[in-house]
Design goal:
The chain is mostly beta strands. Among the domains are: 104 residues, Immunoglobulin-like (Sandwich), CATH 2.60.40.10; 188 residues, no CATH class; 137 residues, Jelly Rolls; 136 residues, Jelly Rolls (Sandwich). The chain is built from no helices and 76 strands. The protein has a seven-stranded antiparallel sheet, with no helix packed on it. Strands 41-42-43-44-49-50 form a six-stranded antiparallel sheet, with no helix packed on it. Strands 33, 36, 38, 53 and 54 form a five-stranded mixed sheet that branches.
Length: 911
């Protein structure tokens, strides 16, 4: 018999119940348990609840569903009537164990609790219009069941437990004896239960008029269930439990094996049960004639339920528990759509002009092993980078990409946290910010929490958060409840997730101390302070605080700690419970005056997948992947051709030709080319993976205090870089050469040595995100001559001509000392930037150009380039710029040179 999976996600689904073809169950949504309903007739799965409290014990009859849900104070009963959710109870006591039959709902209200559990409970019935209290006994009622208008339960009569029946009008006491009667079940007018006969447990049946003892043996019979005249139960045969069926006239032993048979359910002549030991249990069905084994695997299948011929159960799929059926569910298929694009500026967003990437593999990584397996679904992106997965069943999918080693993922972000504490060199300073006089106090009891709106969007593990829950137990969380007193290690996907644990332990502010929060507008931070809060045993107190900074960094500070300190969790954990930072777990670590600082960083060598929930008929869109090229490193010693002015390898290592190679002491080790003479050249074969603009950075060193130069030719473009003494033959500096627009495929890179007396380690080709400022696109100017001497592009006094530089366009010329130009520049991301000016001059004198940006001024010096259209790049050291809009000003420090453009280039440095 075929088996079908109804759910497919990474959370636990359990407690399934079935009525006809409709199924209800409880599923963990990453935060708490919610109630889900599968409606076979319209092919939909509906999430009936979506809150931050636990919903449990769902039951179903037709399209009607009932469950117990926590309202923040106690458990209440809720009913979904096929279209609306109705709260049936609203009181200060716990209502639990709801059951439903048609429009009738019955439940137990727990009024009082003794030392070992509930000591007083009453039975209530909602008949579709009104709620009726069926019992008022000041005693304990249990084992509630319902069938139509009939309700049955086990109640304590002052001596032992007896069986009671409500028939829609009156309550009848079915048993009156001195032994315990329990576990009643009802079907129509028939009631079955277990009772002790003085020797062991036996099964009894009330048929509406009389009570019949179905069993009379020396073994224990228990767990009876009834459907019509048919009764099923389990009995110990001297070896293990077996399943027995009474069909209205005779008793049949359905099982006879050496495994444990349990959890039987019945519908008409059909019986279902689980059998096995330990973690491997299977589901069996008796269809009135034969026994069929529904499952045969190495994992646990449990809690089978039946309605007619239809069976539902929970089974472990190797990751978590899912819901399974013995019939094929009709489900309206869903779809996942997304795009993969070339993230040229690496900001994780597809900006205008950033193209899609064609021919990349996207796959559904259902076993979450970060590789495409043979049985997993995959697709490739089209010419625009678009992809889709269609005809998907309801469930949660892990959407992943195969990333080439030459590329770095920029979306989804892979965020990790680096941390330091105040006991470490260069760690943070302890700087207590007392908010007890200015903050808002929150009044929390034991195992309690409160939601607070953040004053800014706070990025935590790459996800923007605008609310936080402050827990009484020393942690902050984004979504999970604040009542979790039992601290776990980090990471732990089965416990509390998505949290910031400054001191997660079983604390009790209800017994003393205070908790405050404060929005520090001046410093752009949000502070939560625990002041003199005791642990649960009310011995000692703890004062500490958590600071959330708007830039995503986090600070823990510990002021006065006068309690047990080795029973807490300190650290961070992401929403999935798969990644985190564990500073301490049940160990002595924190002390008075300690500060811990966490800084989010992107890991460029990790890849993240999307977790996508697809509802029935839903299109889950914008499941996008951003990638940018990694740098291409060209080691100087790995040339394919060369010319060297001297014979032999002066360094005597790595290669046996005339290029001089030595061992380098630069970071990363390896070799460098040295003993360079003017006129030497080297060439390299490159395989460029993608059409892109590349910034070239040369790693050079020299102990000679003179001007050095290096010409680099790539894809028909030549740039010259000038540099000076670095302080030693192994004192290495990066020099930025400029930007090359390079086509994908095989390319030759050629290095021509313009001077002697320097060493070369490598050339890095880095994907450029340069902001190009064309010289002719100024917003303001001062020019010392009247009219545009070049006569093109603009009709004012700035002199502009057509340029023959690579890329064409225009350049500013006829420059005189004292002239200036102003430009508006947008810096998308804060960071270190280099300014690269594209200049040319036929006059071999010293030229200078001052560039002012964001309050910083840098000067560029250069001499003649060999012609008015012989272009070279000149650059400076880095400028540390914040994101924002700025004015950039060029002041001409000399005359007689041309400017094509200024590139504001993110300075990447070492790979």
């Amino acid at each position: 018999m075929a088996i079908f999976s109804l759910t497919n996600n990474n959370f636990g689904d359990s407690g399934a119940e079935i009525s006809g073809n409709n199924v209800v169950w409880s599923g963990y949504d990453g935060n708490d348990n919610e109630i889900y309903l599968y409606n076979y007739h319209n092919g939909s799965v509906v999430q009936l609840t979506d809150n931050d409290t636990y919903d449990s014990s769902p039951q179903i009859s037709g399209n009607n569903v009932v469950w117990s849900g926590y309202d923040g104070n106690d458990n209440e009963i809720y009913l979904f009537d096929g279209s609306n959710i109705v709260q049936l109870t609203d009181n200060d006591t716990n209502d639990s164990n709801p059951l439903i039959s048609g429009n009738n709902v019955a439940w137990i209200n727990y009024l009082d609790y003794g030392r070992y559990g509930p000591s007083e409970s009453e039975i209530y019935l909602y008949d579709g219009n009104n709620t009726i209290q069926l019992t008022d006994t000041d005693s304990y009622q249990s084992s509630l069941q319902i069938s139509g208008n009939n309700v049955v339960w086990s109640g304590f009569d002052g001596k032992d437990s007896e069986i009671y029946l409500y028939d829609g009008n009156n309550v009848t006491k079915l048993t009156t004896n001195a032994t315990s009667d329990y576990s009643p079940q009802v079907s129509g007018d028939n009631v079955v239960w277990t009772s002790y006969d003085g020797n062991d447990n036996e099964i009894y049946l009330y048929d509406g008029s009389q009570t019949i003892q179905l069993t009379d043996n020396t073994t224990s019979d228990s767990g009876p269930l009834i459907s019509g005249d048919n009764v099923v139960w389990t009995s110990y045969d001297g070896n293990d439990n077996e399943i027995y069926l009474y069909d209205g006239s005779q008793t049949i032993q359905l099982t006879d094996n050496t495994t444990y048979d349990s959890l039987s359910e019945i519908s008409g002549n059909n019986v279902v049960w689980a059998s096995g030991y330990g973690d491997d249990r299977e589901i069996y069905l008796y269809d009135g004639n034969q026994t069929i084994q529904l499952t045969n695997n190495d994992t646990g299948d449990y809690n089978p339920q039946i309605s007619g011929d239809n069976v539902v159960w929970s089974g472990y799929d190797g990751n978590d528990s899912e819901i399974y059926l013995n019939f094929e569910p009709f489900l309206i298929p869903g779809e996942i759509q997304g795009r993969k694009w070339h993230d040229l500026n690496g900001n994780g967003q597809q900006d205008p002009g950033e193209p899609g990437l064609e021919g990349w593999t996207i796959y559904l990584d259902q076993n979450q092993n970060s590789q495409l397996d043979g049985d997993e679904i995959s697709t490739t992106t089209d010419v625009n980078g678009f992809y889709s997965f269609t005809n998907l069943r309801f469930g949660t999918y892990t959407v992943a990409e195969i990333v080439d080693s030459k590329w770095q993922q920029t979306n989804p972000l892979v965020i990790e946290y680096q941390w330091t504490d105040s006991s470490q060199l260069n760690g943070p300073s302890f700087d207590w910010v007392d908010i007890s006089a200015v903050g808002t106090e929150v009044h929390l009891g034991d195992d309690d929490g409160v939601d607070v709106t953040l004053p800014f969007d706070f990025a935590f593990y790459g996800e923007s958060q605008n609310n936080v829950k402050i827990s009484s137990n020393g942690y902050l969380t984004f979504g999970d409840d604040g009542a979790n007193y039992y601290n776990n290690s980090i990471p732990n996907s089965y416990g509390l997730n998505n949290f910031i644990a400054t001191f997660w332990d079983d604390l009790n502010p209800g017994a003393g101390g205070s908790i405050y929060y404060y929005n520090d507008v001046a410093e752009n931070r949000f502070i939560v302070q625990y002041q003199d809060v005791p642990r649960y045993e009310e011995v000692g107190s703890l004062t500490f605080q958590t600071i959330l900074n708007a830039d995503g960094s986090i600070v823990f500070q510990y002021d006065e700690l006068n309690a047990i300190l080795d029973n807490a969790t300190i650290g961070l954990e992401n929403a999935a419970g798969t990644s985190g930072v564990e500073i301490a777990y049940n160990e002595n670590y924190v002390n008075n005056g300690l500060a811990i600082n966490f800084v989010p960083v992107q890991n460029p060598f990790s890849y993240e997948a999307h977790e996508v929930v697809v509802g029935t008929g839903e299109i889950a869109g914008d499941v996008d992947f951003g990638n940018r090229l990694r740098g291409i490193r060209v080691e100087a010693e790995d040339y394919t051709d060369y010319f060297d002015t001297t014979s032999g390898n002066s360094g005597g290592v790595y290669r046996d030709d005339d290029v001089d190679i030595e061992v380098t002491t630069d970071i990363g080790g390896g070799y460098n080319v040295g003993w360079i003479n003017q006129g030497d050249w080297l060439s390299y074969d490159l395989n460029v993976p993608e059409n892109s603009s590349y910034q070239l950075v040369a790693r050079v060193a020299s102990d000679l205090d003179r001007d050095h130069s290096l010409d680099i030719t790539l894809d028909g473009q030549t740039h010259t870089v000038n540099f000076n003494n670095t302080g030693g033959w192994q004192s290495w500096n990066d020099v930025i050469i400029g930007n090359f627009d390079v086509q994908a495929g095989s390319q030759e890179l050629r290095l021509d040595m313009g001077s002697s007396g320097f060493n070369l380690n490598y050339i890095d080709l880095l994907p450029s995100t340069a902001i190009r400022v064309e010289a002719e696109d100024y917003t303001n100017y001062s020019d010392l001559t009247t009219g545009n001497s070049g006569g093109v592009y603009r009709d004012d006094d700035v002199d502009i001509e057509v340029t023959t530089d690579v890329g064409g366009g225009f350049n500013v010329g006829w420059i005189d000392e004292g002239e200036w130009l102003v430009y508006d520049v947008d810096i998308p991301q804060g960071g270190l930037y280099a300014l690269v000016a594209r200049v040319a001059s036929d006059v071999d004198v010293n030229h200078s150009l001052d560039i002012s940006l964001d309050g910083e001024t840098t000067s560029l010096g250069f001499s003649g380039t060999g012609g008015w259209q012989s272009w070279e790049d000149v650059t400076n050291g880095g400028l540390n710029l914040a994101a924002g809009s700025y004015e950039m000003r060029l002041d001409m420090g000399s005359s007689l040179f041309n400017i094509n453009y200024i590139d504001v280039v993110p300075y990447v440095g070492d790979l």
